[in-house]
Write a structure and sequence with these properties.
Its EC number is 3.5.1.16. Pfam families: M20_dimer, Peptidase_M20. The chain folds into two domains: 3-202 and 333-416, Zn peptidases (Aminopeptidase, 3-Layer(aba) Sandwich); 204-331, Alpha-Beta Plaits (2-Layer Sandwich). The chain is built from eleven helices and 19 strands. 34% of the residues lie in helices and 23% in strands. The protein has helices spanning 3-13, 15-26, 36-48, 60-63, 132-151, 173-180, 228-248, 296-311, 341-354, 369-374, 398-416, and strands spanning 52-57, 80-86, 96-101, 121-123, 126-128, 160-165, 188-190, 197-202, 204-213, 217-218, 264-271, 277-278, 281-290, 323-331, 334-335, 359-363, 379-381, 386-387, 395-397.
């Protein structure tokens, strides 16, 4: 039996254990502020695998000068990042970080789910649950790729780190904190659900909060009041025009094939406090994309100016300008050098498992790759397929997860043993 056949058999032999591990991960509601439980579980799991582990809370002051630092939205106390490291006896290969984020977005109304979002359920060779695809499945692939290699008793020649981070969905500060603390390597792989494609570019992202104030009243005197919610929709309409404007400009080379690469999403809106009261204040939050090579600070200024210009055309808003604040992501775009060893070896590993040439992905959202790029560490994403990320009925395709685990195992072997 060849080395490669042994590796694939080891992964197949561990498959039931990998599914149980993923179900356990998915049972944790690790939304913003609730990450500690799953992080403790992961750290203990890595200790049982004889990894040297460390965990600590993010120190915002230590990372605040990095260009990809995001503006925190809640305190970092008891919300650790975790890393497990294993150095080889003969350390003459290349080191590797396998990173995943364990934070998930809110499940939303359960009435829209066909299964319980935090009771992972397998149907038709798919596993359903919040965060199962984005991206606890990728974490399972990372860990079980390593476990399969160890099951073969074939030593690696480079250090392997398994990192699990918080706030990939809002700031990216978890990844920055581990890198700042010195947990670096010769390359990094993040198994985000790329549908077996290699991420070669991604857009930058900023988050925006707008608060609009009006004049409240009982609905009986609505003609004497100013409805904050209706005025908020005027600003939302202005942002829709901004979206059309930025997508009508010349596209970045990596996104020329994409019909609509720069998305603006009004993700949250809150206003009013009683059905028959004219709302005196309304707040909405938006996500805005920008191309690689663009400074997010410039986009913040451009968006602010666009909103103010729209308000100056309105009789009420021109004298009662909204409060505009930026929070969370101030994320730069990313472009990968596809001539480097990371791309080549990952592409070869994909072909070894699937028999097909890998496709590239220009991603219209953001991932933690930009943090590694800021530290000069070659990095990309490659992971499984599924559907409904950030939506009800999120699922991962289990055949795809098995393929991903095999590709990552081949990649670890081929990278670390250079």
């Amino acid at each position: 039996m060849s080395f490669d056949e042994r590796l694939e058999k080891a992964i197949d032999d561990l498959w039931d254990e990998e599914l149980l591990f993923l179900k356990t991960l998915g049972s944790f509601d690790s939304t913003l502020g609730n990450e500690k439980g799953v992080q403790q579980f992961i750290e203990n799991y890595l200790k049982d695998m004889d990894f040297e582990t460390a965990s600590f809370d993010v120190n915002n002051d230590e990372i605040s000068n990095y260009k990809n630092h995001g503006i925190p939205v809640i305190d970092y106390k008891d919300r650790p990042v975790v890393v497990g490291s294993k150095k080889p006896e003969i350390n003459d290969g290349k080191s590797l970080i396998l990173q995943a984020h364990i934070d998930v977005v809110d499940a939303g109304p359960k009435s829209h789910w066909e299964t319980e979002p935090y009771i992972p359920t397998v149907k038709d060779n798919k596993m359903y649950g919040r965060g199962i695809l984005d991206m606890k499945g990728g974490l399972a692939a990372n860990i079980f790729a390593v476990k399969a290699l160890e099951k073969m008793n074939e030593p690696l020649h480079g250090e392997v780190q398994i990192q699990t981070v918080i706030e990939e969905e809002v700031t990216g500060n978890g990844a920055l904190a581990l890198l700042q603390a010195g947990y670096t390597a010769d390359a990094a792989l993040i198994p985000e659900p790329t549908q077996h494609r290699i991420l070669t570019s991604q857009v930058g992202v900023i988050y925006l909060r707008v608060t609009v104030r009006g004049v409240g009243a009982h609905v009986e005197k609505a003609d004497e009041a100013v409805n904050a919610t209706m005025n908020a929709f005027k600003i939302i309409e202005a942002l829709e025009k901004y979206r059309e404007f930025i997508n009508s400009q010349e596209k970045h080379e990596a996104f020329k094939h994409h019909p609509h690469p720069l998305n603006i999403n009004i993700g949250k809106i809150q206003g009013g406090d009683w059905t028959s009261s004219v709302p005196v204040e309304t707040t909405f939050e938006a996500r805005i994309g920008c191309y690689p090579g663009t400074d997010p600070a410039d986009i913040q200024k451009e968006v602010r100016d666009w909103i103010i210009e729209a308000c100056e055309k309105d009789e009420w808003l021109k004298d009662n300008l909204p409060e505009i604040e930026f929070f969370g992501f101030k994320a730069h775009g990313f472009e990968m050098d596809i001539e480097n060893d990371l791309y080549r070896i990952l592409a070869e590993s994909h072909k070894e498992v699937t028999g097909e040439k890998v496709e590239n992905l220009s991603f219209t959202a953001t991932t933690d790759v930009r943090a590694f790029d800021e530290f000069g560490i070659p990095v990309t994403c490659y992971g499984p397929l599924g559907n409904y990320m950030h939506a009800p009925n999120e699922y991962i395709d289990l055949d795809s997860l098995r393929y991903t685990t095999k590709v990552i195992a081949y990649f670890i072997k081929n990278w670390c043993n250079q």
